[in-house]
Amino acid sequence: MNETHGHVFQNLFKELKSDKTIDSWLFVNSPWPVCSILALYLTFVFKLGPKLMKNREPINIKYMVLFYNLMQTIFNSYILAYQLIRPEVFNYLWNHACHPDNTKSNIAHEIHVASWYFAFSKILDLLDTVFFVLKKKQSHISFLHVYHHVNMVITCFAHLRFIKSENAAIGTIINSFVHVVMYSYYFLTALGPSIQKHLWWKKYLTRIQIIQFIIGMLYCAGLFVFNCTFSRIFIAYIFADVFLFLYLFVKFYKKTYKQKNKTQ
Predict the structure, then answer these.
(1) Burial code of 208-225, b = ≥16 C-beta within 10 A, e = fewer?
(2) Is residue 156 part of a domain?
(3) Which residue among 10, 33, 99, 148 is buried most deeply as judged by most CB within 10 Å?
(4) Using CA atoms, how far apart are residues 137 and 155, in angstroms rounded to an integer?
(5) Do residues 261 and 236 make contact, with C-beta atoms less than 8 angstroms apart?
(6) How open is the CA angle 18-95-24, to the nearest 5 degrees?
(7) What residues contact 102, with CB distance under 8 A and at least 6 apart?
(8) Are 170 and 93 in contact (CB under 8 A)?
(9) Among 34-43, 124-133, 161-170, 177-186, whose mean pLDDT is lowest?
(10) Which pLDDT score is estimated for 262?
(11) Among residues 214, 185, 206, which one has the least CA distance to residue 253?
(12) ∠ CA(243), CA(244), CA(250), 5° rounding?
């Protein structure tokens, strides 16, 4: 058993990568800023926020939320376009999705830049929960919600610091698209009841998220099946992580929409 554990740790250290340029980027060069942000986030969401709002009416932050959702829609569209408008990115992923190009090509660097933008967007996503607290919607702050946000921040920046795999571009593209759809919906919802009554596609947001998790798991499995060059321990972690997300989102979907149908 000890030999097995030693072999696993040995492989893990072999898979870790360093790059002077990427390792110098904001939030990548040190874990403390990200850890501090997450500590502040959790403290506000579970302690300071509820205490602050306990004897107060919900704060009217309609225009702040509108701006935030619009900004997130634009930012995620930019992350998506940053990769899709470059034909060389598609060609790179088509030719090197299984075996990354080790010649330190410029396009690989651009993929890592997009990964940083994506990781930063996950920090911005934390404001979702802050708004729930300020609007006194503490019931919206579920384990799934908080775990999802915290986990994404840690995973994205840990990937940039230690793994630096171009395989992440697939997930970045898919998830950015999902967030464009999601924040577009949130923006329209925040406009008020006159718009909300026309938004019939809320439940499909969760379906899209579930589909992205299935695609992610199939992709991770494919990397193993075709014996691709990648960080096996990290991809195994991603597979397990995405599987947990899939389970939690399916559970949420059934609870929210199946029970709702029964009561109608």
Answers:
(1) ebbebbeebbebbeebee
(2) yes
(3) 148
(4) 27
(5) no
(6) 20
(7) none
(8) yes
(9) 161-170
(10) 55
(11) 206
(12) 90
* DSSP one-letter code for 143: H
Q: Which residues are catalytic?
A: 148
Do the domain assignments include residue 19?
Answer: no
Q: Which residue has the tokens 């729930």?
A: 132
| Beta-carbon contacts of residue 59 (< 8 Å; ≥ 6 apart) | 53, 134, 135
21 falls within a domain? no
Q: How many domains does the chain have?
A: 1
- Confidence at 1, pLDDT banded by 50, 70, 90: very low
CA 135 to each of CA 103, 124, 139, 204, 222: distance values in angstroms, whole numbers, following the listed order: 51, 18, 11, 25, 43
Amino acid, res. 123: I
Exposure b/e, 74-109, CB count within 10 A at least 16 = b: ebbbebbebbeeeeebeebbeebbeebeeeeeebbe
Structure token digits, residue 21: 């340029």
- The residues, any chain, with a CB within 8 Å of residue 167's CB and separated by 6 or more, are 97, 100, 223, 228, 230, 235
Tokens of 112: 């890592």
Q: How far apart are CA 53 and CA 233, in angstroms?
A: 43
- Establish if 15 belongs to a structural domain: no
Contact between 23 and 161 (Cβ < 8 Å): yes
Phi then psi dihedrals of residue 253, to 5 deg: -60, -45
* Mean pLDDT across 25-51: 97
Longest CA pairwise span in the chain (Å): 65
The domain containing residue 77 runs over which residues?
A: 30-263
- Judged against a pLDDT cut of 90, whether residue 158 lies above it is answered with yes
